[in-house]
Specification:
Length: 297
């Protein structure tokens, strides 16, 4: 069965080195983020694990250091559900780092019961989209200073089911965990598309959205019973976290990829019609800026 599952996973490797480069990976204490951080550390990058849970992040850093000789890995506190924490993190980065070559917006929550962030946003929209939107905004000057640099937004194939509910972004009128999740994953791609358009004048800053595939990570703990049954029954189709990191790494390392594009299984992939709607992307950008109280042209 596991062999059959491997048929659905495209193998990929690269010998590119990242010596002298600085990388931030959000949600790097576990799963895809941890495997991404480990691979980049193995290539010589300075890797910043940006995590909410410092204890688990320190454990992850220890694991990476044991696996990777002379790994340059540091842990920094980042809670994407709290704009104050995001501001504090960005300030610390500017005070301690001279450059930033890769920002990997990997952290996420999935299909959780209704709750809100510290700033009153529905949690999945607030963390998966707004948190990373705000983080990227705050770090953009450092990314431009360090060009060529890249931003990678981890989305999902589930975005195909998504719609941006501008009339009810916070799910206050009608909330369903799946609806909120697929909305946030669609938002990741729309953000990627709009950022690429607006960054055209910023030489050297590229942005990509990726689908890691169905991966066995902590994020599936919030799946309902029927979906958990599917995961158990068809587990051979599910990628390991290391395999789930392939496409992120592909976009981080492969030269000359066109900016603003969406990738799955280490190749450019078709996204939904909604994800290609420039008007929706522009509107979401404006609404996101308004909700966060920022001006980002």
């Amino acid at each position: 069965m596991q062999f059959i599952g491997r048929l659905f996973t495209k193998s990929w490797s690269s010998d590119i080195r990242l010596d002298g480069k600085t990388v931030i990976v959000t949600g790097a204490n576990t799963g895809i983020g941890k495997e991404t951080a480990k691979d980049l550390a193995r290539r010589g990058a300075r890797v910043i694990l940006a995590c909410r849970d410092l204890l688990r992040a320190e454990q992850a850093a220890g694991d990476i250091s044991r696996d990777v000789e002379n790994a340059d890995v540091v842990v920094r506190k980042l809670d994407l559900s709290d704009t104050k924490s995001i501001c504090d993190f960005a300030e610390l980065i500017y005070n301690t780092e001279k450059s930033l070559h890769l920002l990997i917006n990997n952290a996420g929550v999935a299909m959780c019961p209704y709750s809100t962030t510290a700033d009153g946003f529905e949690t999945q929209f607030g963390v998966n989209h707004l948190g990373h939107f705000f983080l990227t905004f705050l770090l953009m000057d450092l990314l431009k200073h360090s060009a060529p640099s890249r931003v990678i937004n981890v989305s999902s194939l589930a975005h195909h089911m998504g719609k941006i509910h501008f009339e009810d972004l916070n799910g206050e009128k009608s909330y369903h965990p799946v609806k909120a999740y697929v909305q946030s994953k669609l938002a990741n791609i729309l953000f990627t598309r709009e950022l690429a358009t607006r960054a055209e004048g910023m030489m050297g800053v590229s942005v990509y959205a990726v689908d890691p595939g169905l991966v066995k990570t902590d994020i599936i703990r919030n799946l309902n019973k029927s979906l958990q049954f599917f995961v158990k029954r068809f587990g051979f189709l599910i990628k390991t976290p290391a395999e789930g990191a392939y496409t992120t790494l592909y976009c981080a390392l492969t030269p000359d990829l066109p900016t603003g594009t969406y990738y799955s299984n280490c190749a450019m992939a078709p996204c939904s019609r909604a994800a290609k709607d420039d008007n929706t992307a522009s509107r979401l950008w404006a609404v996101s800026c308004h909700l966060l109280g920022i001006r980002w042209k």
